[in-house]
Design a protein that fits this description.
The chain is of the alpha/beta class. The protein has one domain (8-249): Class I glutamine amidotransferase (GATase) domain (Rossmann fold). Helix content is 29%, strand content 31%. The chain contains six helices and 14 strands. It has helices spanning 24-35, 67-90, 100-105, 207-210, 212-223, 236-249; strands at residues 8-13, 41-46, 59-62, 94-98, 108-111, 114-117, 124-128, 134-145, 151-162, 164-168, 176-180, 190-191, 193-195, 198-201. The strands form three sheets. Strands 2-1-3-4-14-13 form a six-stranded mixed sheet, with helices on both faces. Strands 6-5-7-10 form a four-stranded mixed sheet. A hairpin with a 5-residue loop joins strand 8 (134-145) and strand 9 (151-162). Helix 1 (24-35) crosses helix 5 (212-223). The mean pLDDT is 92.
């Protein structure tokens, strides 16, 4: 391993409860793409009742779960992990929430007459409104840096399945613009939210195997600008997977 390549330390929050959409695949993609480049990778978890050290990892990940499990995790996030996650976000560690994890990164999730408090890293609120679930293949256009600040536009493709409608506050940036699918609320044509290195999205299926360019972007952001550029990989198979997901969405 190059001497100046730091270890990528990843923490999965509630991997036993927030993992209903094959979210483990996202973690495996991060691990394998680091291994193929000779970058050391350490994966740990933080479950119910465990406090979170916001200094101990470069990337924090929380996936999706059933409403019951999401309630349990929301209570634990507030009690044991909110301070750690805020510290992580403040020092520009990567925080990625997918589906239910995205909702918990916001201010609240209103479910019937119940308001589930979130950690407030993203200026969004989610409401379970009357109407059908937002389900189907989805593709969004995103403009991100390459890990070192250079802007470019790419497409993320995946699958969405959520009953909640997520609403962004006026100053909150979306992750991307919907090309196909429903997005945050079914009508705004916006999907996800991003604040620096904190990102929430409804795209799963899982997300990163279908979009390995985004996995690399997350790795580069987590390792920081002091790390060398990531070496290119032979992604012919991964590119076909990405194109298949885009075709499924009609893009």
């Amino acid at each position: 391993m190059p001497e100046n390549f730091p270890t990528l330390r990843v923490c999965a929050l509630y991997p036993d409860l927030m993992n209903i959409y094959a979210d483990r695949g996202n973690l495996l993609v991060l691990e394998r793409r680091c291994a193929w480049r000779g970058i050391d990778f350490e994966l740990s978890s933080s479950g119910l009742g465990e406090e979170l050290d916001g200094e101990a990892h470069e990337l924090f990940y929380i996936g999706g779960g059933q409403d019951r499990d999401q309630r349990l995790c929301a209570e634990d996030l507030i009690e044991n992990k909110r301070a750690g996650l805020k510290r992580a976000a403040d020092r520009d560690a990567v925080v990625l929430g997918v589906c239910g994890g995205y909702q918990l990164l916001g201010h609240s999730y209103i479910l019937g007459g119940e308001e589930i408090e979130g950690v407030g890293l993203l200026d969004v609120t989610t409401v379970r409104e009357v109407g059908p679930r937002l389900i189907g293949n989805v593709a969004i256009e995103v403009s991100l840096g390459d890990g070192y600040g250079a802007p470019h536009t790419e497409v993320l493709a995946g699958f969405e399945n959520h009953g909640g409608r997520t609403h962004l506050a006026g100053g909150q940036a979306a992750l991307g613009r919907v090309l196909a699918g429903r997005g945050n609320d079914g009508h705004s044509r916006l999907e996800g939210a991003r604040s620096h290195n904190t990102i929430g999205t409804y795209l799963h299926g899982p997300l990163l195997p279908k979009n390995v360019w985004f996995a690399d972007w997350l790795i580069a952001r987590a390792l920081g600008p002091q790390a060398p550029p990531l070496a290119p990989l032979d992604d012919r198979l991964e590119q076909q997977t990405h194109l298949s997901a885009r075709r499924a969405a009609g893009v």
